From TrEMBL:
It is found in: Mitochondrion inner membrane. The chain crosses the membrane at residues 81-99, 119-141. Keywords: Membrane, Mitochondrion, Mitochondrion inner membrane, Protein transport, Transit peptide, Translocation, Transmembrane, Transmembrane helix, Transport. It is a multi-pass membrane protein. InterPro entries: Pam17. Belongs to the PAM17 family. Component of the PAM complex, a complex required for the translocation of transit peptide-containing proteins from the inner membrane into the mitochondrial matrix in an ATP-dependent manner. Component of the PAM complex. This is Presequence translocated-associated motor subunit PAM17. PANTHER family: PRESEQUENCE TRANSLOCATED-ASSOCIATED MOTOR SUBUNIT PAM17, MITOCHONDRIAL. It holds the Pfam family Pam17. It comes from Linnemannia gamsii.
Length: 211
């Protein structure tokens, strides 16, 4: 564009089109920054959510020995508590059944008195209820703690594998001195397991070397 020599363009003069274009470019740049910030925030949130999800999955796939022994003690408590009503149910059911049977003192059952047979039957049902109590308690425990059931089964296999591997050799052991806690049923903690290991080594040393 041609200008007259007398007209001088000052540095502060900015054409209107230039001003509008700059405003639009700033708005576009700001929008790009906002979109970039939102995208980075979304990626970061997705990353940490996946990281937390993976952490929870890893926690579900592993269990420490203290947690295992705590769950094992809880399972044993369920089994012992269920032994009481199952035994009582066996006694009451057997007693109710045998009381309502026809009683003839002149007749015998298997060559024994009827009262003796009925009493033995009641005791047998009580023992059956006593044996079924731990089974029922274990079923209730596994249904209540269904989330930890796969981990608990895995730890059970690992625990009994360690018991079989580290206990004393039962071959040639004297009947008067059996192997202490052969199945590791008294182990309730990591400390008890270490004590069990010491007892197995002492037993092995006494049997093999008489020391």
């Amino acid at each position: 564009m041609l200008q007259s020599p007398g007209l001088k363009t000052t540095p502060d003069f900015i054409p209107p089109r230039r001003l509008i274009s700059t405003s639009k470019s700033r708005n576009i740049a700001g929008s790009i920054d906002i979109i970039t910030l939102g995208a980075s925030y979304s990626i970061e949130t997705s990353f940490f959510s996946n990281l937390n999800r993976t952490h929870h999955i890893v926690e579900r796939k592993s269990m420490d020995w203290n947690s295992y022994f705590a769950l094992r003690g809880t399972r044993r408590l369920y089994e012992r508590v269920c032994m009481v009503p199952s035994t009582a149910l066996g006694i009451l059911g057997g007693g109710y059944y045998f009381v309502h049977q026809d009683f003839d003192p002149t007749m015998s059952i298997f060559g024994m008195d009827q009262v003796l047979v009925y009493g033995m039957g009641t005791i047998a049902l009580a023992l059956l209820g006593l044996a079924l109590g731990p089974v029922v308690g274990n079923v209730i425990f596994r249904s209540v703690h269904s989330n930890a059931r796969p981990l608990l089964d895995k730890m059970d296999r690992e625990f009994f594998k360690r018991i079989v591997l580290n206990r004393a050799n039962p071959t040639g052991n004297p009947l008067a001195h059996p192997i202490p806690d052969f199945y590791g049923e008294k182990i309730k903690s990591v400390h008890d397991y270490r004590s069990w290991l010491r007892k197995q080594r002492e037993y092995h040393r006494k049997v093999m070397y008489y020391v």
